[in-house]
Amino acid sequence: MSRQQRAELDAMIRGPRPEGPLPEDPRPEDPRPVEELRAGFRALMAGMIVPAGIRTRSTALGDRPAVLVEPAGTPRPGTILYFHGGSYVVGSPRTAMALTGNLVTRTGFRAYSLDYRLAPEHPFPAAIEDGLSAYRALLDSGEDPAAIAFAGDSAGGGLAVTICLALRDAGLPVPAAILTFSAGLDMTRTGESMASKADLDPLLTRAGMEHTGAMYLAGQDPYQPLLSPAVLADLTGFPPMLLQAGTNEMVLDDSTRLAARARDAAVDVVLDVTADVPHVFQAYAGVLDEADEALERAALFLRQRVRADRTAPAPTAA
């Protein structure tokens, strides 16, 4: 265990940010304009290490643009539908490329990273609708649900779960697996870790989460399954899930409570918690040993769950 690496990463995150504020840390007295938050997030994520050995191209999936990420060699059968993080307000497939690229290189699967609509211009449930449309497009192209896994980080991890809720309720077949990194799964913000981890979390603040959360909610009641699945969702019929999180994050209990709900619904679930690491620590692969180790466990989970003899040809590039 790399205690020195973890301590150095925590100090770096807490230090001055030349790229500007994150969406999670505007101060209540000085909320940042959305475009400033988006620019700062792009600059921050540009510093993450994207693995070599991938090729990317712009395409479309359903009603939205997407980035197709493939291994440099011949892909093995299987598709990851990836949802980027960013509090539903910032981010894009490009800001999540370190995570998506690592999953592709470690599994050999191709991945579609969806450019879903963002709040406040497009609040709830726009992102869920976009994810549902993307999944339908994969099915319509001939893709076997057993060949598809959902994955996502932070807000995107929340989407991996809520989109699966929406498609199950619409009568569509569920994907083979769900993988989440530090998923945001509770817009009610009632988890105990919201308070108990506030001083340990170097990235998230309650004020920041309320600021961006209000943009996504746009006045909607957070007490509904598609907004707070960790509190309210019935996960009956869900595919196997791997939920990864760190002990130093305020949303830790989003994952622990969803795991309990999965257990109660007789769903296969692995809750994978790493000590003394921050929100979406997997993005620091190549810097933090625990990030690389967690990604290896995630890749093994996907390889074990995604099974198909073939995948359909990629949709035509937009």
In brief, what are we looking at here?
By secondary structure, the chain is α/β, with parallel strands linked by helices. The chain has helices at residues 3-14, 34-45, 97-107, 126-140, 155-169, 193-196, 206-217, 229-232, 252-264, 289-305, and strands spanning 54-61, 64-71, 79-83, 110-114, 148-153, 177-181, 241-246, 269-274.
Report on this model:
The chain is of the alpha/beta class. The chain has a single domain, classed as 3-Layer(aba) Sandwich (Rossmann fold), CATH 3.40.50.1820. 36% of the residues lie in helices and 15% in strands. The chain has ten helices and eight strands. It has helices at 3-14, 34-45, 97-107, 126-140, 155-169, 193-196, 206-217, 229-232, 252-264, 289-305; strands at residues 54-61, 64-71, 79-83, 110-114, 148-153, 177-181, 241-246, 269-274. Strands 1-2-4-3-5-6-7-8 form an eight-stranded mixed sheet, with helices on both faces. Helix 3 links the parallel strand 3 (79-83) and strand 4 (110-114). Helix 3 packs across helix 10 (289-305) and helix 4 packs across helix 5 (155-169). The protein is globular. The termini are far apart. Mean pLDDT is 92; it is low at 310-318.
